[in-house]
Design goal:
Structural class of chain B: mainly beta
Order of helices and strands of chain B: EEEEEEEEEEE
Strand content of chain B: over 45%
Number of helices of chain B: 0
Oligomer: heterodimer
Number of helices of chain A: 0
Structural class of chain A: mainly beta
Radius of gyration of chain A: 13 Å
Helix content of chain B: under 10%
Shape of chain A: globular
Strand content of chain A: over 45%
Largest sheet of chain B: 7 strands, mixed
Shape of chain B: globular
Largest sheet of chain A: 7 strands, mixed
Chain lengths: 107, 124
């Protein structure tokens, strides 16, 4: 199975900050990497697919990059509604696997 | 608007069975693969199972293989997860999710959207 490792596991930041979350795969997954946002009690939401494709309706302050084994999710200017847990997920092969999550909290 | 509504969760004894349902609307159900993903209390997301658009291909996580069965009723736009031989570590919120493609667990696919989830608790 492909292991996905996110860092950091948690992060405190302020509104307006630029934030970067990294995701590393245990083997090359090309660009088959997706990012989700999850708020408590809500359905997870797709943000970015194929490493860097911003999904429809997702604010442009979110961006993704990377290929192979190393990927990043960047939020250029944090907004209050961005405080949530973020997960990466590989769809290169089954079993699909997720990172352990990065909890983004208000400083 | 695409909507997914899970039901069927609840409290079950270890060794028991539950059947989850996911009612889909707002899209051509027969054209997309569907999946179940779960989140145990205080833990991250875990893929459980996927089924192809036509229902002919299925995949399972090793943790549920042989105990869970995914299926779909295209005439009723409904996805199911039959959960047998339940264990305490199956306790989780179970989400159904629509795949971006038609193949079960296809390369390059993503989950969009997800349902609100249904809680399954396995405890004596």
């Amino acid at each position: 199975d492909i292991q996905m490792t996110q860092s950091p596991s948690s992060l405190s930041a302020s509104v307006g900050d630029r934030v970067t979350i990294t995701c590393r795969a245990s083997q090359s997954i090309s660009s088959y990497l997706n990012w989700y946002q999850h708020k408590p009690g809500r359905a997870p939401k797709i943000l970015i697919s194929a490493a860097s494709s911003l999904q429809s309706g997702v604010p442009s302050r979110f961006s993704g990059s990377g290929s192979g084994t190393d990927f990043t999710l960047t939020i250029s200017s944090l907004q209050p509604e961005d405080f949530a847990t973020y997960y990466c997920q590989q769809s290169y092969s089954t079993p699909y696997t997720f990172g352990q999550g990065t909890k983004l909290e208000i400083k | 608007e695409v909507q997914l509504l899970e039901s069927g969760g609840g409290l079950e004894l270890p060794g028991g069975s539950l059947r989850l349902s996911c009612a889909a609307s707002g899209f051509t159900f027969s054209s997309y693969a569907m999946s179940w993903v779960r989140q145990a209390p205080g833990k991250g997301l875990e893929w459980v199972s996927s089924i192809s658009a036509g229902g002919g291909n299925t995949y399972y996580a090793d943790s549920v293989k042989g105990r869970f069965t995914i299926s779909r009723d295209i005439s009723k736009n409904t996805l199911f997860l039959q959960m047998n031989s339940l264990r305490a570590d199956d306790t989780a919120v179970y989400y159904c999710a629509k795949s971006s493609g038609s193949a079960a667990a296809g390369t390059g696919d993503w989950f969009d959207p997800w349902g609100q989830g249904t809680l399954v608790t396995v405890s004596s």
